Amino acid sequence: MAGKINVTLVRSMIGRPEKHRRVLKGMGLTKMNKTVQLEDTPAIRGMIEKVSHLVKAEEITDETS
User: Fold this and answer.
1) How confident is the model at residue 5 (pLDDT cuts 50, 70, 90)?
2) Hey, what CATH class is 4-59 in?
3) First and final CA of the chain: distance in angstroms?
4) Domain ranges for the chain
5) How many CA atoms are closer than 13 Å to the CA of 25, on its beta-carbon side?
6) Burial of 2 by CB count in 10 Å (0-12 exposed, 13-18 middle, 19+ buried)?
7) How far apart are CA 12 and CA 32, in angstroms?
8) Sheet with strand 55-59: strands edge to edge
9) Whole-structure pTM value
């Protein structure tokens, strides 16, 4: 699980609970359609699970190997 994940904010955080907003900010997602590349760790997976209805996550495949 040492790969990377692309996470994109696809729904607005307006009207969402403060906990959800803090999770999104912790992942670096501050604006709509912003994409960040994060390490694939259990902590990040848990954060994605908490706000799965607001984000789109894609595993990055290493095509050079």
Assistant:
1) very high
2) alpha beta
3) 16
4) 4-59
5) 8
6) exposed
7) 6
8) 35-39, 4-9, 55-59
9) 0.86
